[in-house]
TrEMBL record:
Originating organism: Blastopirellula marina
UniProt keyword list: Methyltransferase, S-adenosyl-L-methionine, Transferase
One Pfam family, short name: DUF7008
Transferase as UniProt keyword: yes
Protein name, per record: site-specific DNA-methyltransferase (adenine-specific)
EC number per UniProt: 2.1.1.72
Keyword RNA-binding: no
Domain Type II methyltransferase M.TaqI-like: 282-459
UniProt domain DUF7008: residue ranges: 827-1240
MF term (GO), any: site-specific DNA-methyltransferase (adenine-specific) activity
GO terms under biological process: DNA modification; methylation
């Protein structure tokens, strides 16, 4: 039987091996046709604007698809073999069939004409034989992606593939992977579709539709469509389609239902005829080739099973109406757009080699289908070319940063039959369009034109694989015919993981109530909502009275937030934070601190306070004028390396920064008016609750921390009055009705788990926030009190503030901790009074229920928490609110409270229990969590940071790392061992004092502490010591880009160039020579013809898996997607100091200083510590080789100190020393670390 999980896991590992082989052969001169074919197809796609990816990224997908094609083809064969659908077996089989397969393999090569062939030709011959059978012609024939380049995968890799399926379990003696299944259940193929390749899963957003969701949607689309149109619908019979069919769940379900209808209607007709009719009714398209391969194979088996065929040879040539291709791109909408532009329909439009051009033209005809269903991808299109194409093809719906759910929504309706007898449409999709800005055009321009019949909130349902909040939409492709839409509104999410998701409480409520308008349960309420409400963005479909209360607030208070502010929105957006944003201390280390500002992220705006943990390059002067250029200096090298990638950022016009003439270091957007005045209200855009803070100037705000700017004459008190309203529970309630609910988390089955709704995360979009209704009154006193306390916390009581004042004794820390906790209790109390004052201002209560003399209170003591605790005690509610916040549930009011405050809280409790609106808001989901980091955790982080700063200060040779600008260096420019560094720390009294508190040990091991601190803050100089093989391949691409950047700079400057150093074609060399001849020097700096000639590729971004992570290494965390050096130290593994500990150099050294430090240690090892055969010499010399290109770039001019060109000095040093080691420079450059000796268990002698 099939072990689905084991098969998937093993095939994932196998796929990676095949991908590695395909990558190597795509660059190999042994099979030049492979690389040439790939390059040609890429060039065609690039010219046709089907892709904007760089070649390497585009090729990676082709590699994955080819590897998957080989794997799946073998899986298909193995399934056929083990279920006796074909004979004899050719790959493997259980029992004696394995030997039969091996015999067939031997027999194949006994033919003299095949003697020199390989396992690749053997498997291709197996596939050829199956392609000749009518039933599997499409599965193994020309539709199979491996047919495009059958010799791409190498013979040895195919041999590994063959061996994989023949592996025997050592314990049982049976095949490890047995595909025998008497029921022919192909669900395991759905698992492979979704998870075989992580890269494919992310690119195509692969996701299976659970059976119970598929059945629900087909029940309400396919079944009524069959009832209305009939099986013989004109003109070509009944037709259904899934234009994003994946592995075919909807198609299989539809085939079974349609066949059952035919059998009921024509019981006397031969099954084969009815199966053929049912298959001809089912249509599917998917952009992912191996998805279509799986869908085709599953439909084949379903058809054979329906006919009772048990031998593949007896299966007819079924007509599968499936096609690989981009349904969004190739739909008739594309041709319609061309016609609208005055062009003719072109049947020779660009198609990738994997796309089925003829089939796509037949299938994707608008207005052709009686039933259209899908579970489309929810991701945003990452390929810039595809993004722009969809935006052009679907202008009525694609808006801003749209997700693919939007154009697919339009496509689904457009494919359906239109008019009075309109086709039925159903889909499960992300609900993000409902409240995010990109959904505005879809809702307000498109939905009024179609008959949306059902909006079903499934965000609270437990749906495996669906970590994104979802909604099911049903409708028909016609003008609306009723004034209302049946709406299933969510109240509460699934309280726990159900044993059977199909029987989950939320899903069961949806199924049981959808046809009962006016019904309400614990989980959903159902009603018929006025249609015009669904033609306005955003949607608010909260159940249990939430929508009604939101409408009440909107209608009774006409003043809006937008009426009293100057602007709301992002402060800036770089579109490249990996390049612009870095940890605090980075800029000082690089020597460019004057160009940076502290930045606030939304994650760090919480509970009336904000903190900055990073800094951002701010290329603007004090008047907000952009810098004219980035200084061409060594200290800016880290940024200049990123120039090509930054220049390739897209502009709103569809081109790139470079094409548009924008500076490569420019922010993507920077509304400067929002930066001219110091007072700013900012907030966390993505959070569980509303968090607003008043900032008093000097910072930059990340796009995740939008800003609210009041008129220039607004006072600080005006800001604080508004701040109080924004931070209130009633504001939180309103915001959650219009904001996108991102959910809480996902479980190990990929299902969205809501549990306690208080912990759902929302995207509080600034555009939606503008509509917040405002009362006439102001909230000032409590806002001022809480703001004052929050400032005290930040400046006086936080551990980082205490350490900054050089205080680290136990008594001071304890006192600060107590002050910190007391302040928080008082803030909690003030916030509670503020919330209840707001209820009076908004007219929800008639009498004042707040006081100016409330005592400090703990978490768990607020009125709503007491009500909740009582419900839990009575068994009426389940919650982990108290547990997650470390608070104690209480059911009685604390005895120490003043009597008047007790009476006030009792009245509040009475209102919560008896007033529906107050009871709706006074819930955990709308009340401030005060879920702050513990003081102890803050102290630990602050101590660690202080200790690291102190260690780094020992290298600060020019005072750049401190405000006074005084050098604190204890070392010269040199490599320093961990042991030496610890010796210096041991003599530092302040380091020892802080270290003692950090370790909570007066006799702590100093060297061990230093080792631990440095371990997470160093990165090796040599790429081979920080990257895995995929990362090294990406590094090579980056180096090529840097070399071309240097060439471009020299050509534009009119300097002498050596074209031999660059990977250029002969045509490029000729074009460069012509450009040099024809372009006068004054015009060279801005001439764009050179851009086209060089075509400098944008190097691929790194992934965490590209970096070595063993031994506690944090290289990925310190370098990131663009490999920006954020570490404090450069390390030299395999080059330990005389004391046997790791050698370090300060990351603040420039390339020349690094080379000097390395060369000095090289000579020291050679002459004093190891001799000329010391193994440390080669990796040290390799380090200098690594620095040579940068020395040539930044240190070619004659050095004022040494009177020489230092790049030439070190180039000569490397050449001479390599010769002394008996090696060439290339051999030194290619040094790899010695493999660790494998431990072998030995046998003791008797």
């Amino acid at each position: 039987m099939i072990n689905r999980q084991a098969l998937l896991s093993d095939l994932q590992s196998l796929l990676k091996k095949l991908e590695a082989d395909l990558l190597d052969r795509s660059k190999s001169s042994d099979v030049p046709e492979v690389g040439e074919t790939l390059r040609e197809e890429y060039a065609r796609a690039k010219k046709a604007e089907r892709t904007a990816l760089n070649y390497e990224t585009w090729r990676s997908d082709a590699i994955t698809q080819t590897a998957a094609a080989w794997v799946l083809s073998c899986v298909f064969v193995r399934f056929l073999e083990d279920n006796a659908l074909i004979d004899p077996p050719k790959i493997a089989g259980p029992g004696k069939r394995l030997q039969q397969a091996r015999d067939e393999h031997t027999l194949f090569f006994q033919d003299p004409e095949r003697a020199k062939l390989t396992d690749r030709e053997y498997l291709l011959a197996v596939f050829d034989q199956l392609a000749e059978l009518p039933g599997t012609r499409d599965v193994f024939g020309d539709h199979n992606p491996l047919r495009q380049l059958p010799n791409w995968l190498g013979p040895d890799a195919v041999g590994e593939l063959l061996k994989f399926f023949q592996k025997i379990d050592a314990n049982s003696g049976e095949l490890i992977h047995d595909f025998t299944d008497p029921n022919w259940n192909t669900r395991f193929l759905g698992d492979l579709y979704q998870d075989l390749s992580e890269a494919a899963r992310k690119k195509y957003a692969l996701l299976q539709t659970p059976d119970f969701v598929e059945e629900f949607i087909l029940d309400r689309t396919l079944e009524p469509a069959l009832d209305e149109f009939g099986l013989d619908a004109k003109p070509e019979g009944f037709k259904m389609i899934d234009p994003a069919c994946g592995s075919g769940h909807f198609l299989l379900g539809a085939f079974t239902r349609i066949l059952a209808r035919w059998q009921k209607e024509e019981p006397g007709t031969k099954v084969r005829e009815l199966v053929g009719r049912a298959l001809r009714s089912v249509h599917g398209v998917d952009v992912n080739p191996f998805a279509i391969a799986i869908a085709r194979f599953r439909l084949l088996l379903a058809a054979m099973q329906a006919e009772g065929i048990t031998r593949l040879a007896n299966a007819p040539g079924y007509e599968f109406r499936l096609a690989t291709g981009d349904s969004l791109y190739h739909s008739r909408q594309r041709q319609k757009t061309l016609l609208d532009d005055g062009e003719e329909i072109r049947e020779d439009a660009h198609y990738f080699a994997s796309e089925d051009a003829a089939d796509l033209r037949k299938i994707l005809r608008p207005g052709s289908y009686h039933c259209v269903v899908a579970n489309p991808p929810y991701i945003t299109p990452k390929d810039r070319a595809a993004n722009q194409a969809y935006r052009k093809l679907y202008p009525e719906t694609c808006h801003r940063q749209y997700s693919l759910a939007v154009p697919f929504m339009e496509l689904l309706f457009r494919l359906a039959v239109n008019g009075s007898n309109a086709g039925y449409v159903g889909q499960i999709t992300s609900n993000s369009f409902m409240k995010r800005e990109f959904g505005k055009k879809l809702i307000e321009s498109f939905f009024p034109k179609v008959d949306l019949t059902h909006v079903i909130d499934t965000s609270g349902a437990y749906i495996p694989g669906h970590g994104t909040p979802t909604v099911i939409l049903l409708g028909r492709n016609r003008r609306p015919i009723s004034d209302s839409i049946r709406t299933v509104m969510g109240i509460r999410g699934e309280p726990s993981t159900p044993e059977d998701p199909a029987l989950g409480q939320v899903w069961s409520a949806i199924v049981g109530q959808i046809d009962l308008s006016g019904s309400e349960s614990e989980f959903v309420s159902v009603g018929d909502t006025e249609r015009p409400l669904f033609h306005m963005h955003p949607w608010s479909i909260g159940g249990g009275g939430a929508s009604e209360l939101k409408d009440q607030l909107d209608n009774e208070f006409r003043s809006r937030l937008s009426d009293c502010v100057q602007s709301i929105g992002f402060y800036q957006d770089t579109h490249a934070d990996e390049a612009f944003v870095h940890p605090i201390g980075f800029s000082a280390r690089q020597g460019v601190a004057t160009g940076f500002k502290r930045q606030i992220r939304g994650d760090n705006v919480r509970d009336w306070t904000s903190k900055s943990e990073e800094e951002i390059l701010f290329p603007y002067d004090d008047n907000l004028n952009q810098w004219p250029k980035i200084p061409v200096e060594n200290r800016w090298d880290w940024l200049i390396r990123l120039k090509t990638g930054l220049w390739s950022r897209s502009t709103f016009g569809g081109g790139t920064y470079k094409q548009s003439g924008r500076p490569w270091y420019d922010y993507h957007q920077f509304p400067k008016d929002r930066a001219r005045t110091p007072l700013t209200i900012t907030y966390g855009e993505v959070a569980t609750h509303n968090h607003f803070v008043l900032d008093r100037g000097g910072k930059v705000f990340n796009r995740t921390a939008p800003v609210i700017k009041l008129p220039e004459d607004a006072t600080e008190e005006d800001h604080l009055a508004l701040l109080g309203l924004l931070n209130s529970s009633i504001a939180c309630f309103w915001m959650k009705q219009v904001a996108h609910n991102k959910g809480d988390s996902t479980d190990n089955k990929g299902a969205r788990t809501t549990g306690d709704v208080a912990f759902n995360t929302y995207a509080f979009n600034s555009s939606l926030l503008k509509g917040l209704p405002l009362p006439d009154g102001r909230i000032t006193r409590f806002s001022i009190l809480i703001d004052e306390l929050s400032q005290k916390l930040a400046t006086n009581f936080r551990p980082s503030a205490i350490l900054a004042s050089n205080v680290c004794d136990e008594a001071s820390l304890k006192s600060s901790r107590n002050d910190y906790q007391a302040s928080y209790k008082q803030m909690i109390s003030h916030q509670e009074e503020l919330d209840w004052q707001c209820y009076k201002l908004y007219g929800l209560i008639n009498e004042e229920r707040f006081t100016l003399s409330a005592p400090p209170i703990n978490l768990g003591e607020r009125a709503f928490e007491i009500v909740l605790a009582r419900k839990v005690a009575r068994g009426e509610a389940q919650t982990n609110w108290f547990e997650r916040h470390g608070s104690n549930p209480i059911t009685e009011l604390p005895e120490h409270w003043p009597d008047d405050y007790k009476l006030l809280v009792e009245k509040r409790i009475e209102l919560i229990e008896n007033d529906k609106n107050i009871g709706l808001i006074e819930r955990p989901e709308y009340k401030r969590r005060w879920n702050t980091e513990t003081w102890e955790s803050q102290l630990d982080r602050a101590l660690r940071s202080w200790l690291l700063d102190r260690l780094e200060s020992y290298f600060d040779l020019d005072g750049r790392m401190n405000d006074e600008g005084k050098t604190t260096a204890k070392f010269d420019v040199e490599l320093v061992s961990i042991a030496r560094l610890a010796d210096v720390a041991r003599q530092d009294n302040e380091f020892m004092e802080v270290g003692q508190v950090f370790r909570d040990d007066s006799a702590f091991d100093v060297q061990r502490l230093v080792e631990e601190l440095v371990q997470g803050e160093n990165v090796p100089l040599l790429p081979v010591l920080r990257y895995k093989p995929p990362g090294l391949r990406k590094r090579a691409e980056w180096e090529n880009t840097w070399q071309l950047q240097r060439l471009e700079d020299k050509l534009r400057a009119g300097e002498e160039v050596s074209l031999g150093d660059c990977d250029l074609t002969e045509e490029q060399r000729q074009q460069i020579a012509q450009w040099q001849t024809e372009t006068p020097q004054p015009a060279r700096a801005d001439d764009r013809n050179l851009d086209a000639i060089l075509a400098i590729p944008v190097p691929p971004k790194y992934k965490s898996s590209d970096f070595i992570s063993s031994g506690g290494a944090r290289y990925w965390a310190l370098r990131g997607k663009l490999d920006v050096p954020k570490e404090r130290w450069i390390s030299f593994p395999h080059c330990d100091g005389p004391d046997g500990t790791l050698m370090l150099a300060w990351a603040g050294y420039n390339h020349l200083q690094q080379a000097q430090a390395i060369s000095a240690y090289f000579v020291d090892v050679q002459e004093r510590h190891g001799g000329r055969d010391d193994p440390r010499l080669v990796p040290l010399l390799a380090g200098i080789v690594e620095l040579l290109p940068w020395l040539k770039q930044w240190h070619h001019d004659v050095d004022a100190t040494y009177g020489q060109r230092m790049d030439e000095v070190f180039e000569g040093f490397v050449t001479e020393e390599a010769k002394g080691l008996g090696m060439t420079v290339d051999e030194v450059r290619d040094w790899v670390p010695p493999k660790k000796a494998t431990k072998r268990s030995g046998t003791k002698n008797a």
